[in-house]
């Protein structure tokens, strides 16, 4: 059966022990990081539906490495370019993992 890259990323995120950033996912699957963020957005929706709410894509929010500001209110998985507090561009990217909610 043909398995799409989105399914492969989903399985990968279910198997890992620690959250991983989109840059590392892009490296593993040899795709563009921009593409990974698009997949993550879809996976976040589909994983809940397909598991009947038993699993979820969790995101460790990005944070500013200069002042420690945490980007808590992101609606979509992405890496902010600049810190709103200190204007630093030294941002630790968000990290992702799929976990069982039970
Ligand atoms: Zn900052």
Description of the molecule:
- The chain is of the alpha+beta class and 102 residues long.
- Helices cover 36% and strands 18% of the residues.
- It has three helices and five strands; from the N terminus they run H-E-H-H-E-E-E-E.
- It has a three-stranded antiparallel β-sheet.
- The radius of gyration is 14 Å and the shape is globular.
- The mean pLDDT is 94.
- It binds zinc ion (ZN).
- Zinc ion (ZN) binds at residues 64, 66-67, 69, 83, 85-86, 88.
Order of helices and strands: HEHHEEEE
Portion in beta strands = 15-25%
CATH topology tier name: Arc Repressor Mutant, subunit A
- Arithmetic mean of pLDDT: 94
What form results from the Cα inertia axes? globular
Q: Which CATH top level class fits?
A: Mainly Alpha
Strand order of the largest sheet: 1-5-2
Helical fraction: 25-40%
Total number of strands: 5
Summarize the structure.
36% of the residues lie in helices and 18% in strands.
Which features characterize this protein?
single chain; 102 residues; alpha+beta; Arc Repressor Mutant, subunit A; 3-stranded antiparallel sheet; two-stranded antiparallel ribbon; 3 helices; 5 strands; binds zinc ion
Give me the secondary-structure topology.
Blueprint: H1 5-15, E1 20-21, H2 22-29, H3 33-50, E2 55-60, E3 63-64, E4 91-92, E5 95-100
Antiparallel strand pairs: 1-5, 2-5, 3-4
Bound molecules: zinc ion.
The site of zinc ion (ZN) has 8 residues, from loops.
